[in-house]
């Protein structure tokens, strides 16, 4: 019999009426001949209310007790859902994470799923029950209750669909699918009918709150098609699957991470291993770092800037101070009033001028870009928080994301999953479900780096630089712009194909002169090392492993960029081969 997982988010179970409505939907699916597993979130704003309650008795509540408390929200809603189904005359049974056997690691508030028991659920389903699973929770080895992080019920749902080899995984929510950006912020946003795992993973981790990003990791790893749809209607929503709607689109979505904070460490010795001392302490606290930009100034000192979630700024600063005590630095600055605006698209890897368009649109609106990082499929800029929503709307408009695609889209049809099932079961043997997996490590020795230093901190500079570069037909790969130092100047570096270096330097020199930048330097001999896999940013340790492997071999990092599917570092060309070997060794245990 086909098996279907239906997940209902907080707003879809916010009232008794809504619970009954969800119950009817599940019953209907069962009557249509499916076994049904429901995954339910806490009602409405329950989780927020519980957090507030905790804050009233303790400003820094112990994480274990927080999970004990937060898990109760879902326990209420599963029990009510089971009662609702009984009242409609059907069989149902509710289960907490512990009762199912959702085993996690012990990192409270952001626990990762290690394994899920299926026997109890299977037995109950075979007895004709609708099984109602509490989302967002599990237990660790010592039977402590853990939670998966805000929005984690999505991850429970997709993980259950994976282990049960469900035929469908439906996510019922208060929007009718995935939009080109948050429709609450940009009303012109358009619903997409289908989006690829990689794009969704990137969008979710860059702030598209419609799906918990780790749920997409599960989808990708275990090949679970995810259907995001409205709990208010029967209209089909958005399919999240391997094949995107339009793989050629330069930009297919935009996202905003509103609550970011920036940290800059100025004047640290530019020798291998210094940033490692800092980042490993941050990773030890399980804080995810993004937009890492490092630039080497005069006299062999470097500045490193990066962003962390705003609510983890204090903990991150504590980690940074510890690291700085060991390696020494001229100073630490931070700013908790910033936000990150990003565009994502598979097609940008093959097109020129995408970054330039984004920078130009922001410049025309007078929005200052404080930092830039890119990867193959995304461009992120850091801006002032009070300008971020405007920035999002502007880039959404610039890439015409509100317009329906003109070319017809092939409807998505499920593949036969017979062989996949065996493959997935084999992949599940002996691993923890959310463990890091790396599929590839690559060396690219065919690029060169151009760096413009002393770039004034004013709107429109990046736009002018890349306007000229794009006009010259140069294909830019990585772009990083550091945060301006105390003297108010930033450094802008980018990589280009070797054969375009001469032209790029020429263009850069002209622009630098017209904008009164300090100087242009370049290196024809760089090596770009890339590690690709699943969930690289949410596994805080990946960048650290790379830094450590390279620093142990005395290799210095020139540029870094990260995405959910890939981390790239640029090193001296002469060290490319050696770096590659180091990385292969460092990741040998997680290569698949
Ligand atoms: P649930 O409680 O069902 O899990 P969430 O509030 O977590 O629902 O997620 C749904 C919300 O996500 C929507 O109301 C919408 O405002 C927001 N959202 C953010 N980005 C997007 C996007 N790209 N597409 C659709 N919704 C988005
Ligand atoms: N109730 C949890 C939260 O609000 C989990 C979820 O809804 O996905 O974050
Ligand atoms: Mg949610």
From TrEMBL:
Its EC number is 2.7.2.4. Residues 263-334, 343-408, 450-534 form the ACT domain. The lineage of its organism: Bacteria, Pseudomonadati, Planctomycetota, Planctomycetia, Pirellulales. CDD domains: AAK_AKii-LysC-BS (cd04261), ACT_AK-LysC-DapG-like_2 (cd04923), ACT_AKii-LysC-BS-like_1 (cd04913), ACT_AKii-LysC-BS-like_2 (cd04936). Pathway: Amino-acid biosynthesis; L-threonine biosynthesis; L-threonine from L-aspartate: step 1/5; Amino-acid biosynthesis; L-lysine biosynthesis via DAP pathway; (S)-tetrahydrodipicolinate from L-aspartate: step 1/4; Amino-acid biosynthesis; L-methionine biosynthesis via de novo pathway; L-homoserine from L-aspartate: step 1/3. This is aspartate kinase. Belongs to the aspartokinase family. InterPro entries: AceGlu_kinase-like_sf, ACT-like_dom_sf, ACT_Aspartokinase, ACT_dom, AKii-LysC-BS, Asp/Glu/Uridylate_kinase, Asp_kin_monofn, Asp_kinase. GO terms for molecular function: aspartate kinase activity; ATP binding. One of its GO terms (biological process) is threonine biosynthetic process. It catalyses: L-aspartate + ATP = 4-phospho-L-aspartate + ADP. NCBIfam families: asp_kin_monofn, asp_kinases, PRK06635.1-2, PRK06635.1-4, PRK07431.1. It is an enzyme of class 2 (transferase). Keywords: Amino-acid biosynthesis, ATP-binding, Kinase, Lysine biosynthesis, Nucleotide-binding, Transferase. It holds the Pfam family ACT_9. It comes from the Bacteria. One of its GO terms (cellular component) is cytosol.
